[in-house]
Write a structure and sequence with these properties.
The chain is α+β, with helices and mostly antiparallel strands. Helix content is 24%, strand content 26%. The protein has 31 helices and 56 strands. GO terms for molecular function: ATP binding; hydrolase activity; nucleic acid binding; RNA helicase activity; zinc ion binding.
């Protein structure tokens, strides 16, 4: 926290004030207001609350008038003396940290309101920093430095000089003792960061010493004297500049310990047994980059007290299995698991880590809490320049490799023989732009502790000129993704010739999504560095959370004897080639199946563990084995024999040549500490939590060599057998995913038991519908995604877009107000004639202009509607969340603007009573999604460059769009274009198409499956709600019929005033499947039906179909001479096609149904030369134009069954009737209706052209 130093006596006694408010702590503004109110109050009541001198008590806080400050101040009376003219008081000003003498006439009683606010001045001392002095013995003619009881004048002067020259001062509170804060103090002078505690120790003004009560032992001060002639340091120095000292706290959460009089400390701080000393509990501060493998539960001296003794590496010695080929080590009392193929001495403390000294200081400055357990094993081999594979729950944390790689880049001597070309020394490949941005930001943060390094983030679009504009001259570290690097290598093949360090971040994601691209890059790296191999360092680092089958060829073909570090037991078992076997059986036959397995294992001398989940099962198994002459041991919590006894007997059985079988429960495994079993039998189906613990008992038999495949029998030393019964379904999905990951043989019974394993929707049916599914039509990581991937009618259909908002789905006016990302917005659908919200907004503004109408709300309720005035604009808002109120009955509430879609936080007293007449209109905000475009390179999120571009382009501007789908309050549109109205000539100007704008950035590509996937998702609505909707069928169908979803069984009926002539009955399922891929098919809306607007296909008058027939789906394209129509119809029979100058009539039977298309053409054709050819899946009609040229549309009247064939559409720039993008669109006919039809067709054509 940033502070102001008010007064300094010495480093063990100074006062600070907090500059900016933090939770629970007032800032300078609050005290300025306090002083102003005190000044006004006591100036107006000069004679009030006067105190007689004899009534003044020492140790009490009063209000005094300071002659020096010329204002009334709160003061602590420290002395009272009687003089001739009255009493004189010695006071300490608790808000200014000043001492003054005040006459008794200038003292007043402290009003209660002014006593509630805590004192501004906080007394502090430097944490664990004790004074040193030079003691000269003239008799012995020696000089010694030793601890002192007081600070030297030089030390105090230096301390004050640091604070005076500082442009910024920050403090981190570590402990509180007797209401004195013990802090680490930091100053910034001329862009240099200095830890004052460290600086005093470095200049031998002080030394670090743990305080009694937090240390295991402490020596007397007299024993710490050291001769000046000796090489002495108070605590061990690791390097010339970085000091070994107590670690910084993990964060700055000091709100509760800075309350009034520091009395609130007990609620946050943990009292120790020594006096009133209080040390920040580890639970009170946020852990930076918290991961499961954090060096958790270290020895008390390291984790809790964090005292200087933790520098002694012996306190963190690990038990190592002496083996040249493999090592399993346990650190600390929690015995964290690690698998190593080669021995590594961990660096468990930052001060002993193999990092550059200035980098250590930078890490400490940024509150780095590590090294974590995984980092302690990864940093040493990386810093030595070795190839490293690291698999850990923390495998997605870039700090696994950034600090040691930056340390390597400081060694200029290692790179003197570089080829004289441009190119990076280090390359970091990330799976996506978001991770690349994170890595780049961390590099910029930590390069400050190194020599000047120039990192570059490269994210390219697919535009060809993008790669040529990249400048990498002088850069040493490049951060990018595989696709972007390959695009750059096409332009600059020699980019990797100077590369020494290649990092593969999140290796499992890189190999699962871009394996081909990664191996192409590895080949390029191998070829580029081969000619100049020499003595140049070449290193590949791969980190991730899961083992991947592609890591094996990576090791064999591109790495040089890498260090493999795996801290996840399940992943180590995959690398160790543990044979995973699933044996299906029934609950009643489990024991018989177990006996068969043991019979096989007894042929080979093995150590077998049989796991059961209850004492009853253990006893039953042990009895069954005994009755079948199988010698076994048992262990559970009720066993009389202790763990050591059982373990010795089990191992003696194996040594004597007898198969060793131990039946036990999971809670006994840790006490036994078995790691050398050769076979584990899961008699009870394992939960994910215990599965890894059971596999750890096999860890001594994990293979350490690189095998050709997961099923390589020659390398299998350990086996895990799972008995699968009918009651095993609870944890089956998780185990199935692991077995797939391990490439184990999986029986069909396990697949049958988990039919929804990839979706796992049962636990998240109340979650919102997956945003990725809505935006792109697919969620690439359903197993990890927390959201829902199925329709939930109670949520998705709870609020629907009102029918009157979408009178004509083919053309709606949209006003986007909140841009979530490039293709997802919130806004309003504006009616063309009389927009109801516009009328409502005007009425609300007029209503709230009157002050008497602005009635604040006393009791704020969740989900209630209120008014909110922002300047001259009034909004309707809904309360989303209401936290607890403070003393003044005012709180911050989270609200949603129901007509805009955005959320915000406001004070509860800003909410106004909203009359009922303003609540009648339903919320107008709808979610808008632009279809058929997605990010390049299989990214799951839009690059911020695209989102920012679209935000600047469309926010608050009117757009025209065609609705292709609706679900609840979500509207899918395609296309959506920005327009400008010219009312004087009744013409619209088409400014741009959003889809084309996204494609033009090079960061988006076509997504043709989007609409089809949404339709497929919504098909289940017809099934889920079919019975309910049948109960509300109307007596008569309405005029306009639209297909509900794509099922072909349910019809949605909506009344409209126009465009009703061409709408007919929904086609058969075969036509539906064809129509899904057509963005012209606006009739596929899934807007939920109202009770009086639904009719099923069965209720339709069959005679209409017999006379009129179904309308087939037709796609068309053209050139200058002809127009080609493809009629989608299977195995047409009795077909007829009649041509006239301005009309085409086609009819045919397919699968017993009559299909009819009567088309009135936009322009004339030559009937005699036009032809129709019937094929197996379609009929092809060729129309010869009467006049050569391009038609802007096919039909005079819009027909929802006719759409452009985007795959075949071609037109030259010269022949286009308009241009889309930077150019303007103007149509010869100025009438809006004709323009709309042409405009939508042309907009879609333009989008298609942009894809090429």
């Amino acid at each position: 926290m940033e502070v102001v130093v008010l007064q300094v006596e010495d480093p063990s006694c100074f006062w600070i004030a907090v500059k900016k408010p933090i939770p629970g702590v007032l800032g300078e503004t609050a005290y300025e207001n306090l002083n102003a109110e005190m000044e006004q109050f006591y100036s107006c009541h000069k004679d009030a609350d006067k105190i007689k001198g004899e009534e003044i008590k020492k140790g009490q806080v009063y209000v005094v008038f300071s002659e020096e400050l010329k204002c009334w101040c709160r003061a602590l009376v420290e002395s009272v003396s009687c003089q001739v003219d009255g009493y004189q008081l010695g006071c300490f000003l608790v808000d200014y940290a000043k001492y003054c003498s005040v006459a008794s006439d200038n003292i007043r009683v402290l009003a209660g309101a002014f006593a509630k606010i805590s004192h501004r001045a906080k007394k502090c001392r430097l944490y664990c920093t004790k004074p040193l002095t030079l003691d000269i013995d003239y008799c012995e003619n020696t000089a010694k430095i030793g601890p002192a009881k007081r600070w030297d004048a030089a030390a105090i002067q230096h301390f004050r000089k640091l604070l005076e020259e500082a442009t910024e001062v920050k403090a981190t509170i570590v402990a509180v003792e007797d209401e004195v804060l013990e802090v680490f103090l930091f100053v910034i002078t001329r862009d240099e960061k200095i830890c004052v505690n460290d600086d005093l120790v470095a200049k031998h003004f002080a030394y670090y010493k743990e305080t009694e009560g937090t240390a295991g032992s402490s020596s007397d001060d007299s024993d710490d004297e050291v001769s000046l002639n000796a090489e002495w340091v108070p605590v061990e120095f690791v390097g010339p500049t970085f000091l070994a000292r107590p670690k910084l706290p993990l964060g700055e959460m000091v709100s509760a310990c800075l309350g009034p009089g520091l009395g609130g400390c007990n609620s946050v701080l943990e009292k120790t047994s020594q006096g009133s000393r209080t040390i920040l509990n580890e639970n009170t501060v946020p852990v930076v980059s918290m991961v499961p493998d954090l060096l958790s539960k270290e020895d008390k001296a390291v984790q809790t007290e964090r005292l200087p003794q933790f520098l002694n590496s012996n306190s963190l010695q690990t038990q190592t299995v002496e083996d040249d080929q493999k090592s399993f080590q346990n650190v600390g009392k929690e015995k964290n698991f690690v698998f190593l193929n080669k021995k590594i001495e961990p660096s468990s403390v930052l001060e002993t880590a193999p990092l550059f000294d200035d980098l250590k200081k930078e890490l400490a400055w940024n509150k780095f809490s590590g090294p974590t357990f995984t980092e302690s094993y990864c940093w040493p081999p990386v810093a030595l320049g070795c190839d490293v594979i690291a698999i850990s729950h923390q495998g997605n944390d870039p700090l696994l490799y950034i600090p040691p790689v930056l340390t390597l880049l400081q060694l200029k001597s290692d790179y003197q023989t570089w080829p004289n070309r441009s190119g990076p020394q280090a390359l970091i490949l990330c799976p996506g732009w978001k991770k690349a941005q994170l890595v780049f930001d961390l590099l910029k943060t930590y390069r400050k502790g190194c020599r000047p390094l120039l990192p570059v983030l490269i994210i390219l679009g697919q535009n060809k000129e993008a790669a040529s504009q990249v400048e990498i001259g002088g850069c040493e570290v490049v951060v990018t993704t595989p696709y972007n690097l390959l695009r750059l290598l096409e332009h600059n093949p020699g980019l990797l010739c100077r590369l020494c360090h290649l990092v593969l971040d999140e290796i499992e994601v890189l190999f699962s999504d871009t394996a081909e691209q990664v191996f192409t890059i590895l080949d390029c790296y191998k070829k580029a560095t081969a000619p100049a191999h020499g003595n140049l360092p070449h290193q590949i680092i791969a980190v991730g959370t899961q083992w991947n089958k592609h890591i094996t060829p990576l090791i064999k073909e591109f790495m040089n004897d890498p260090h493999i570090v795996i801290t996840v037991i399940e992943e180590a078992a995959i690398f160790g080639n543990v044979q995973q076997v699933v044996q299906p059986c029934t609950n009643s036959s489990r024991t018989a199946e177990l006996l068969k397995i043991l019979d096989l294992t007894q042929r080979k001398l093995q150590k077998v563990l049989v796991f059961a989940d209850s004492v009853t099962d253990v006893e039953m198994i042990h009895k069954a084995l005994k009755s079948n002459s199988v010698v076994s041991l048992k262990k559970h919590q009720e066993s009389k024999c202790n763990a050591q006894c059982v373990l010795e007997r089990w191992r003696k059985m194996h040594s004597a040549g007898t198969p060793a079988v131990l039946v036990l429960t999971d809670d006994c495994l840790q006490s036994l500490g078995i790691t050398d079993a050769t076979c584990v039998i899961h008699f009870s189906f394992p939960s994910p939590g215990v599965f890894g613990q059971r596999l750890q008992s096999l860890s001594d038999n994990f293979c350490t060599g690189i095998k050709d495949s997961a099923g390589d029998q020659e390398h299998m030393k350990a086996k895990s057998v799972i008995l699968l019964t009918e009651s095993s379904s609870c944890h089956a999905p998780v185990i199935l995913r692991y077995l797939k990951h391990a490439e184990a043989e999986i029986p069909q019974e396990l697949y049958d038991m988990t039919p929804r394993v990839l979706e796992s929707e049962e636990d998240k049916f109340s979650r919102p519908l997956c945003a990725s599914l809505k935006t792109f039509g697919i969620c690439r990581n359903r197993t990890e995604c927390p959201d829902r991937h199925q329709i939930n009618l109670s949520i998705d259909m709870a609020q629907n877009v009102a029918d009157e908002m979408i009178e004509t789905p083919e053309r709606v006016t949209i006003l986007p107000l909140l841009i979530v990302h490039a293709t997802n917005y919130f806004g309003r659908i504006v009616k063309k004639q009389k927009d109801q919200y516009t009328v409502l907004a005007k009425e609300m503004n007029d209503y709230f202009k009157a002050p008497e109408h602005r009635i604040s709300v006393n009791n704020v309720e969740n989900s209630a509607f209120y008014g909110l005035c922002e300047g001259a604009i009034c909004h309707r808002v809904q309360v989303v969340e209401t936290p607890a109120k403070d003393e003044e009955n005012v709180c911050k509430v989270t609200i949603k603007y129901i007509d805009e879609g955005r959320t915000s936080q406001v004070n509860s007293d800003q909410l106004l009573h909203l009359p009922a007449k303003f609540q009648n209109l339903p919320p107008q905000a709808v979610e808008i999604i632009v279809c058929r475009v997605k990010p390049i390179d299989n990214e799951v999120e839009w690059n911020p460059k695209v989102t920012d571009h679209i935000n600047d382009k469309i926010k608050g501007k009117l757009h025209h769009a065609k609705v292709v789908h609706t679900l609840g309050k979500t509207v899918w549109v395609d296309p959506m274009v920005g327009v400008t109205s010219l009312p004087t000539i009744k013409m619209w100007i088409n400014e741009y198409s959003i889809r084309s704008e996204i494609l033009s950035t090079g960061l988006g590509i076509d997504n043709p499956e989007h609409v089809g996937e949404i339709q497929k998702l919504c098909r289940q609505i017809a099934v889920l709600d079919h019975a309910e909707r049948l109960e509300h069928l109307p007596a008569k169908p309405e005029t306009a019929v639209e297909k509900f979803g794509t099922s072909g069984q349910t019809l949605l009926v909506r009344s409209t005033e126009e465009d009703t002539a061409g709408l007919e009955e929904v086609p058969s399922p075969q036509d539906t499947s064809i129509q899904e891929n057509s963005p012209e098919s606006c009739d596929s809306s899934v807007t939920p039906p109202s009770n009086n607007a639904v009719q099923t296909k069965e209720a339709e008058d069959c005679s209409v179909h017999q006379q009129k027939g179904y309308h087939p789906q037709i796609k068309w394209f053209q050139d200058n001479v002809t127009v080609t129509l493809k009629v989608q119809i299977l195995r047409a029979a009795d077909s007829k096609c009649e041509f006239s100058r301005e009309k085409v009539a086609f009819s045919a039977y397919s699968e017993g149904k009559l299909y009819v298309a009567d088309l009135e053409l936009y322009q004339s054709v030559i009937a005699e030369k036009s032809t129709c050819v019937i094929k197996d899946t379609e009929a092809v009609i060729l129309l010869v134009k009467e006049k050569k040229g391009t038609w802007c549309k096919l039909l005079k009247n819009k027909n929802v069954h006719v759409s452009l064939d985007f795959e075949r559409w071609e037109e030259s720039e010269d022949e286009r009737p308009f241009t889309v993008g930077s150019g303007k669109l103007s149509y010869p006919p100025a009438g809006s209706e004709d323009w709309f039809e042409d405009w939508f067709e042309s907009s879609e054509d333009s989008d298609t052209d942009s894809d090429d």
